[in-house]
Amino acid sequence: MDTSALKEIQAPLKARYKDDPGAALITLTADGELDGSGIACRVRTATALAEAGLHPATGGDGTQLCSGDMLLEALVACAGVTLRAVATALGLEVTGTVRAEGDLDFRGTLGVDREAPVGFRDIRLTFDLDTAADAEQVATLTKLTERYCVVLQTLVSSPSTSVQVRTGATAAS
Length: 173
What we know:
The protein is α+β, with helices and mostly antiparallel strands. 39% of the residues lie in helices and 20% in strands.
């Protein structure tokens, strides 16, 4: 896709969202199934059923997806798509790779040390780019990718999150 094709696709969406801001508010959902054997959760993606389980550092055997890996994979996917969209909008040719790394202390997850954090302490996102763009263009590309990457901005801003549990009859509604 080139710059003009992207702009042609996005122009009516941008106009609609400008005229009707409420139309831009969409709730995305993800569902998991707790049924089955073992310590796992099956998550339906757009193209497959993914089964998440324990990471080997918490007793898993490595045959199931780790939700921490899935979080980093979502970051890589979003950052990569965002970078490609921004590059296209700017008319830049860019190829390369995207990598996310995250540091976890599994003492927190396993309850070994109450002072150890549960979750990622640090996350690093790295782009290794092949491009003829100059330093200023790459800086603009990076700045806009950071600004518009949904997963990155979600991690950075830590939005309000709630947990709700329903049981019995209330779970069916």
